[in-house]
Amino acid sequence: MWWLWLIPAGVLLALLARVIVLRQQAGHWKIAAFDVCRDLLAGSLLYGLLAPPVGLCVVLLVSMLAHGEFHPAALLMGALLSWVGGLLPALACGALAGIARPWLPRWPGTLACVLLGAALGAVWFIGLGWSSGSLRSSVVPALSGAIGALAVSLYHLRHN
């Protein structure tokens, strides 16, 4: 879908907005740009590496326990395959969380990251055509995005 390009465009616009806003405070636009890029890369790497496997494994574990079964191999495969569908939304969530980090207090910022992770996970899943067109089919990506964003944002926003 063409509208999936709005995700990276939104990240770039947020990056540009933070450079413009913090340019006067930093003293020069190059210093502000360096700070923004550092926060963007740190957030992207942290969320991109940790959020997809954590989120999907928690959803799988709860589903397994609800059905009275436990399959460690399924958890391992879920952790490994979680990056297939969850890497790009997690990178975008981490980039936006990194860019907005100075303005995100710990608990409201964590809630914002959870909502953003859920929205990006569901939108990405629907946009790629992996869903049946209903909102019910995007519940697992939304839950795994929200749980992964919650786990990572608790660490990422701790020192804010």
UniProtKB/TrEMBL annotation:
The lineage of its organism: Bacteria, Pseudomonadati, Pseudomonadota, Gammaproteobacteria, Lysobacterales. It comes from Stenotrophomonas koreensis. The chain crosses the membrane at residues 47-66, 73-100, 106-127, 139-157. It comes from the Bacteria. Keywords: Membrane, Transmembrane, Transmembrane helix. This is Uncharacterized protein.
